Amino acid sequence: MTSLTRRQVAAGAAASAAALSGQARAKAPTRGKHVLWYAKPAVQWVEALPIGNGRLGAMVFGDPWVERLQLNEHTLWSGGPYDPVNPRAQEGLGPVRAMIAEGRFADAEKLANETLVATPPREMAYQPFGDLTVRFVGQQGTVGDYRRSLDLDDAIAETTFVVDGVRYRRRVLASPVDQVIALEITASKPGALNLDVALTSAQTVNQVALEGRDGLKVFGRNNAEGAIAGALTFCGRAKVVTKGGTVNGADGQLSVRGATRAVVYVAMATSYRRYDDVGGDPDAITRQQIERVAAKPFDRVARDATAAHRALFDRVSLDLGGTTDPTVPTDQRLARNETTDDPALAELYFQYARYLLIACSRPGGQAANLQGLWNDQVKPPWGSNYTININTQMNYWPAEAGGLAECAEPLFALIKDLSERGAATARKMYGARGWVAHHNTDLWRGTAPFDHAKAGLWPTGGAWLCLHLWDRYDYGRDKRFLARAYPLMRGACLFFLDTLQTDAATGWLVTSPSVSPENRHGFGSTLCAGPTMDMQILRDLFDHTREAARILDLDPDLRADLARTRERLAPTRVGAQGQIMEWKDDWDAVAADPKHRHVSHLYGLFPSWQMDPAAHPDLAAAARRTLETRGDKTTGWAIAWRINLWARLKDGDHAHDVLRLLLARERTYPNLFDAHPPFQIDGNFGGAAAIMEMLVQSKGEILDLLPALPAAWPTGSLRGVRVRNAGEMDLSWRDGRLESVTLRCATSDYRTLKCGEVSRRIFVRAGERVTLAGPSLQGSARAAA
Ligand code: FUC
Question: Which of 690, 630, 627, 634 is nearest to 666 (CA)?
C-alpha cells in the first residue's frame, strides 16, 4: 500500500510525490485496458492528466490534500482583432524577389525582415484560463491505496485514496453535452468532506465574486500582446452541489463542511465569436450553463458525457498483440519500453491520441493548437499557436483513418477563416487574387509572415491545409462537403496563379520569396525561390482542385490553366548524393544543418503520394537516402513524421525502431504528452497516424494491407479503420501474415486489395460487407453490412 503523511504534504506536493514513488505497488487498474494510471500525484504539469470537451479543458493533478484543475477555454487568446500586414510589403516584394534571383539571399532576408514581415512581428498567444483549487481541510493521517488514472474509454479522470479508513474518490470530466467541467468528490464515511473551493484567473485583469451561497464567478479581460490590447471579456463560474453538510461563501471562496458528496461544476466562456467579432456575452452563457447543469444529477452528467465520447472513441480498436501488466503504472511502462518493447504501450499511445483529438477538437470549436487545448502559461512556447508549416497539419493526420472525421471540422472552419483574412493579405502584400497564409496563425487568423523572414516568409501554409479538405472528400466521398471546400481550394490556387515567378535559368515556375521550412541552405539565409516542398504542395493543390472542379462540373478554364501551370512547376529532382533535392538547386551538401528536423521535401512521400514507391521507385529510393542522412533522432513531431515516412517506404522494422524513439522518456512525458521538448501535441497525433500507416495504406482504389508490419507485432488486429473511397475496414493478422480482412463501403466501386505481392480487385457494393481470407486474399464472403 502506498502511504503519504500529512506532514509530507505540508512540505509540498513535490515531497508527497517523492514519498509515494518507489513504494510498494499501488492498486491495479480494474477497468479496461485503455487506462493511464499512476501511483502518485502529479507535481509537474506534464504529469497531470488532460480532459477536454473540444472547448473546455483541464489538467487534473490529483494531490490528496489540494486538488488542482488547471483550466483552459479554447477562445481565450491574448490581444484582439488586428491586421499584421506590413504596410511596406508591396514596396519590398519586388526587390526581395530580385535579390533572390541574383543569389543575394542575406540581403533579401534583411530587406524582407524590414518590409515583408508582419507588424507586429509576433502573432497572439493562447492563454491559460485559471485554476479551480479544492483544499481538503482538517484532514489528518496517512494516505493509502493511492491511485490516479485517466480512463480513455469513459473519458473520466479519477483519483482514489484512503485516509483513516475513509475512502475518497474524485472523478473529473469535461462534458460536450452540458458544456462544463465537473468534479465529483465522495467519501465512504457520511459527512467526512470538508473542502475549500477557489476559482482563480490567470489573466492580469480579473475579479472574483461570490454568487449566492454556493457559487463563484471570475471575470475580466484577456491579456494584451505587445501593442495589441486585450479585446475579449471572459467569465468563469463554479457552483457546488452537495449531499449532506453545508456550503458557505466567504473571502472569495466556498466552504463545504460535513458533506458526503460534493460536485463542483465549472463553466467558462469568452466574448469571442469570430476573428472580427468579440461581441459575445460570456456572463450570460456561463450563467445559463451552470444553472442548467446544477439541476441535473451528476451521474447523468457523467453518463451523457461518456456516451458522447464513446460515440466517437469506440469506432476504432487496435490490438498489437501485447499484454498490459496491470500492476505497472504508465510512467514506469514508458521507462521500461526503452529496454523491453511493449506493444500494448504503442496501442495505448494510439488510442490516447484519438482520445486527445476528441477532447480538443470538436465541431463548432477551435482547431487543436500546438498544445491541443491544454496550456498553463501566459507566455507559452511558440505562443501555443497554429504553426502551419507542419504542426497543425500533423495534428489532423489521424483524423480520417482514425474514424474521427468530425474532429477535423474545426480545422476546416479555420481554413475558411484564413481564406477570408488571407484574401486581404494576398491583395495588400502581393497584389494577388485568392488567399494566402504563411507559416503561423492564431485565433485572430493573422495570415502575414510572422516572427522573421527566415521562418515566416513561406507562402504555402494555406495551400498545404487544403490537402486536408481534399482528404476529407477522398475518405468520405461526400459531394456536399466538396462543394463547401471547393471555393477555398480554388482561392488558394488563384493566389499562386498570380504570384508564381519564372526561373530565368530553367523556365520553371517557382514560388518566390519562400523558404524550405525552416532550413538554411548554406548561402547565408533560408530565403530562396521554388523550394521542392512548395512545388510538391502546389502539384497536390492544383490536382485536387482540378479534380474537384471536374466532379462539381465547374470552371473549365481554370482547370485548363491549372493543368498548364502544373506542368511548368519545378520538378522534384534527385541530387548528387542520391538524395531528394530540398531546393531547386543541389544545395543539400552545403546546407547548414544536414540533420535538420524538418524533412519538408519529403512531403511528396508523406502525406502526399508523389513519391509512392510503387509508382516512382527512383524518387522513393532518393527519399530513403535523404531520411538516412537526416537521421532519426530529432524532436518529437519530427520523429513522428519520420515514422510515417518509413511506413510509406514499407520498412516496418525501421518505422518501429523510430516509434520506439518516440515512446521513450526523452520524447514522451509521464502523462504521455509528446515532448518536442517542450510539450507539443503534434507528435502524439503524428505517432498515432504512423501506427495506422504501418498497418494499412489507402491510395485511390488501392488498399495496401500490412504494408509495413514490423516483426515486433506478429499478431494483432485493427478494426474500424477508415480507408479512401468511403470504406471502413477490419483486419487481423497472425504470425506476421494477414489472417482476414473485412471491408464495408458506402460507395459502390472497384477496390484493389494488396498484401505483399498478392493483389485482388473486387467490386464492393454500397452497404455490403466483404470478407477475404488469408494472405492470398481468397474467398469473398459477402453480406449486408
Ligand atoms: C516549427 C518547428 C519547431 C516547432 C515550432 C512550433 O517552427 O520548426 O520545431 O515545432 O514550429
Answer: 634
